[in-house]
Structures are given as structure tokens and as C-alpha cells.
Amino acid sequence: MVKANIRLIKDKIKQGYKVIFIGKNNHPETKAMLSISKDVILYDESVLNNNLKTTNSKIFVANQTTLNYEEVKKIHQKILDVNPSAVVQNEVCNTTRLRQSNLRSLDKDVDLIYIVGSLTSNNTMKLFDIASTTYTNTLVKLISSKNDIDSQELQNKNHIVIASGASTPPNTVDMIYDFIKNNV
Prior knowledge:
Layout: H1 2-14, E1 17-22, H2 28-34, E2 40-42, H3 45-54, E3 58-63, H4 69-82, E4 87-88, H5 94-104, E5 112-116, H6 122-134, E6 139-143, E7 160-164, H7 170-183
Parallel strand pairs: 1-2, 1-3, 3-4, 5-6, 5-7
């Protein structure tokens, strides 16, 4: 998806578009997109308030593939409110979108949520944010391996959820599942 996004941005620039890229500053994907051309600018409120209102350029909007889908939709709408002719491309990874959606739709009786992945993974951190804000009465922990689990946390838990970032190796999740299964 990242490669497809790069090709698309390059094509839009050739077609005369200015590109607004929605992404986390200093994230490797964002850095790569911003390095394509001076016609790619990072989205922030000042871009929205200054550049869009004063430009006669065609605007194309792209985004980092691992962002929170709901947050990206809100930013798209803000941009379209200011510049209705902007062309918006939503490239949030389907796997990321599905994981976020599934996490939002858990039963409310969840006792414990483990978010598995790296602290440097944007999609893992988004899952942690979603779980923490959606399930405020539930213990939500960010872990990278079974070694991060305190077996005392598992006591008296009936509904434990494991969610992982898209880049988390499946065998890591399997080891965590097995550990929980054998310690509950």
C-alpha cells in the first residue's frame, strides 16, 4: 500500500496537484512521502487555515497507511469543508482498519485487553489509544511479548482480549495466547 501511495502521489504531482499528506511527523512513511517533492506538504491546522484558502491549485489528499481510520475521516471532512474540490484518497490499510473496528466493537464485559506490538508502531499505538478510550473501566496494557505479562493480572478474569498491531509476528501473539490459556 505504501508503494501504491507513492506512485499515486507522483502521478498526481505530474497532473499538477499539490499534495497534502496526513501523517505523523518523523514517521518513516511520512518522511518518505514528504521527500517525493516540494509539492507534498504535511497536514496540520495551519495548512488547512492558510494554504487551502489561498491556493488556486488542485489539491490531492493522501495519508499514512497506519493511522486511525475515524480520525483520518474527520480530517478529510475538514479539508473538504475548506476546499470542496480536493481529491481525497483514503489509504488506511484494510488490516489496520479491521483491527480498529473490531476493537471498538468488543463486548463491554471485557476484563483485560492486551495490545501486542512495538512502542514505535503507529498502528499498535492507535490500537492502544482506541482500547484505552473505549474501555475506560478495563485494564488495557501494551505488551511486546509474553514476558510482559504479570500472571497476577490474569487472576479472576473472565474475558481477556488480545489485539495486535499489523506488524506483530503471529507467533508472538500465539505465544501470548498460550501463556494466558495456561495461566488463567
